[in-house]
From TrEMBL:
Keywords: Lyase, Magnesium, Metal-binding, Thiamine pyrophosphate
Record's protein name: Oxalyl-CoA decarboxylase
Top-level taxonomic group: Bacteria
GO terms classed as biological process: fatty acid alpha-oxidation; oxalate catabolic process
Domain Thiamine pyrophosphate enzyme TPP-binding: 418-556
Cofactors (names): thiamine diphosphate
PANTHER family referenced in this protein's UniProt entry, alphabetically: 2-HYDROXYACYL-COA LYASE, 2-HYDROXYACYL-COA LYASE 1
Record domain Thiamine pyrophosphate enzyme N-terminal TPP-binding: where: 23-137
Provenance organism: Paraburkholderia tropica
Family assignment from sequence similarity: Belongs to the TPP enzyme family.
GO MF term (any one): magnesium ion binding
Domain Thiamine pyrophosphate enzyme central per the UniProt entry, residue ranges: 214-346
Pfam families in UniProt: TPP_enzyme_C (PF02775), TPP_enzyme_M (PF00205), TPP_enzyme_N (PF02776)
Record bears the keyword Isomerase: no
Length: 582
């Protein structure tokens, strides 16, 4: 390991003047100076000593079994805290594994920094065949908000400062920081080194909206007959919870939360229109988007979903990124700034006499909501054998209702679609899911990131297929004794387990897994607690036990193998051949 750190309190001023430090120490000093206290990663050449040193210097290093999961943990930590989550990987393959998480973070607007060791620049650039040779900087660029490489130890402070600023300012995203092996070992005068570090001031400056933009937006809302507020995960990220609640309640406008904005206001709030989603999207004549993009998750703001026949809609869009505006449809009233400042300005501009939506609109929404809730209650009340998605989720819902502080991770196809609407959330930034890409594989990474960051219980509701992408991290969960309860919805396959090979050959159908697999036994191999649940009662008991103990737990929830639908609710994105449709 390298020489004494620049923070070594035992050095006299004279000794310090002569002392040297190195790249390893400077990276850690730069992160610590900026209040970063945790690194998620996976060690190997050339960053093992960086991880050791981080731990020796009082940082937390959480070691994973695959870099993608470490990167996902870092991304969710960034989303929860507004500070960039840090993922540390080795070069080439380790870097590439982490890159998927970096790209996902950028896509979701989560701030994270992927720090990867890299090989000798001279050899890489001449393609002379180094150990794990790869031009990582250029590989990262298309998938990151920014990418930097540091070649001289005296620039480490600048490199880390730029990475932090790029990750959290404006629209947050993933940043790549390339640290060649040679840089880490470079020595540098300790005094000069200390002077080179930068403590970032006001990393994500407030961005106050222009008064005329606020006025334009208020005019749209004031003149609307059927207004709707749509909250996205940008609104949750902004940590402007009180201002958003004030806007919703003062305006009296029905609101819809996107999946990760659930809990920003409790899902049981009377203005929540979640249970009348299709109705309000189709019928609203003015929609206020707050930290939500009109991407595929919102049918791009057009077509049947948006009631094309009901006439054009007016949109207000609050976003920090001006280029988001008009990305899919015309936006009448863009309000550019940070969500806290924008929402505050809207509330201030509303005045005491701002008109509430008509009772005709509010009654229509309430009526549709009540009808749909009654229908859903009837479905949820059924107790089929074997369990289906609904009866299993009812059991989980009833337990989670008693513990609104619990973090929920959710992925899968059917498991995601059903859980999103059945599991109510009551507090902001407690739900972490497949997000903007609809990605599978975030499960255990997000669960570990959420448990480490919050220090509180996580329940991961996982489809059996989705769980497979990160399942080996059960060892990580057990190693750090994290309060994570993973519930695997086991229906023997992708979507469902009933497909057959049309040729009748030895191979099973592409969507089918081993029947009756016991995922609960996997966690037992690492000292965790495994449960098998075949009824809602068994599931309730196992979940209550897991939460009470706080122990790493996996519940294998046996679901009817014929219960799932192809692609969950994304059937429209999954072209099927005429023959297979039969
Ligand atoms: P969802 O998937 O929930 O609809 P998106 O990820 O599509 O949400 O949208 C989030 C939006 O929020 C992005 O357009 C992003 O630019 C914006 N955003 C993120 N943080 C802030 C912030 N602090 N202030 C304003 N806008 C923000």
């Amino acid at each position: 390991m390298a020489e004494a750190g620049i923070n070594d309190a035992q050095n006299s001023p004279a000794q310090e003047a002569q002392a040297t430090t190195d790249g390893f120490h400077l990276v850690i000093d730069a992160l610590k100076l900026n209040d970063i206290d945790t690194i998620f990663g996976l060690v190997g050449i050339p960053i093992t000593d960086l991880a050791r040193l981080a731990q020796a210097e009082g940082m937390r290093f959480i070691g994973f079994r695959h870099e993608q999961n470490a990167g996902n943990a870092a991304a969710v930590a960034g989303y929860m805290t507004k500070k960039p989550g840090i993922c540390l990987t080795v070069s080439a393959p380790g870097f590439l594994n982490g890159l998927t998480a970096l790209a996902n973070a950028t896509t979701n607007c989560f701030p994270m920094i992927l720090i990867s060791g890299s090989s000798e620049r001279e050899i890489v650039d001449l393609q002379q065949g180094d150990y794990e040779e790869m031009d990582q900087l250029n590989a990262a660029k298309p998938y990151a908000k920014a990418a930097y490489r540091v070649l001289h130890a005296e620039d480490i402070g600048v490199g880390v400062a730029r990475a932090i600023r790029a990750a959290v300012s404006g629209r947050p995203g993933g940043v790549y920081l390339d640290l060649p092996a040679k840089l880490l070992a470079q020595t540098i005068d300790a005094v000069k080194a200390k002077q080179s570090l930068i403590k970032v001031v006001d990393a994500a400056p407030r961005q106050i909206p222009a008064p005329d933009a606020v006025k334009r937006a208020l005019d749209v809302i004031r003149n609307a007959k059927r207004p709707l507020i749509l909250l996205g995960k940008g609104a949750a990220y902004a940590q402007a919870d009180a201002q958003i609640r004030e806007l919703v309640e003062k305006s009296g406008v029905p609101y819809l939360p996107m999946s990760m904005a659930k809990g920003l206001l409790p899902d049981t709030h009377e203005q929540s229109a979640s249970a009348a989603r299709s109705f309000v999207l189709a019928e609203a004549d003015a929609v206020v988007l707050i930290g939500a993009r009109l991407n595929w998750l919102l049918a791009h703001g057009k077509g049947k979903t948006w009631g094309a026949a009901a006439g054009p809609k007016q949109f207000v869009q609050i976003d920090i990124a001006p280029t988001e505006i008009d990305s899919n449809v015309a936006i009448e009233a863009p309000v550019i700034g940070d969500i806290g400042s924008c929402v505050e300005a809207l509330v201030a501009g509303m005045g005491a006499d701002f008109p509430k939506p008509s009772s005709e609109w509010l009654n229509a929404v309430a009526e549709r909501k009540n009808t749909n809730l009654a229908k859903m209650a009837a479905t949820l009340d059924k107790n089929p054998t074997p369990m289906n998605f609904h009866s299993a989720l009812r059991a989980i819902r009833d337990v989670l209702k008693t513990r609104p502080d619990i973090n929920v991770v959710n992925e899968g196809a059917n498991t995601l679609d059903y859980a999103r609407s059945i599991i109510d959330m009551y507090q902001p930034r407690k739900r972490f899911d497949s997000g903007t890409w609809g990605i599978m594989g975030i499960g255990m990474g997000f669960a570990i990131g959420a448990a480490v960051t919050s220090g509180t219980q996580v329940v991961a509701i996982e489809g059996d297929s989705a769980f497979g992408f990160s399942g080996m991290e059960l060892e990580t969960i057990c190693r750090y004794n994290l309060p994570v309860c993973t519930i695997v919805f086991n229906n023997n396959g992708v979507y469902r387990g009933t497909d057959v090979n049309p040729n009748g050959g030895a191979d099973v159908a592409p969507t089918v897994f081993v029947k009756g697999a016991r995922y609960d036994k996997m966690i037992e191999a690492f000292g965790g607690v495994g449960h098998q649940a075949t009824t809602p009662e068994e599931l309730t008991k196992a979940l209550l036990d897991a939460i009470a103990s706080g122990k790493p737990t996996l519940i294998n929830a046996v679901i009817d193998e014929s219960a799932g639908t192809e692609s969950g609710r994304l059937t429209n994105l999954n072209p099927q051949s005429a023959a297979m449709k039969k």
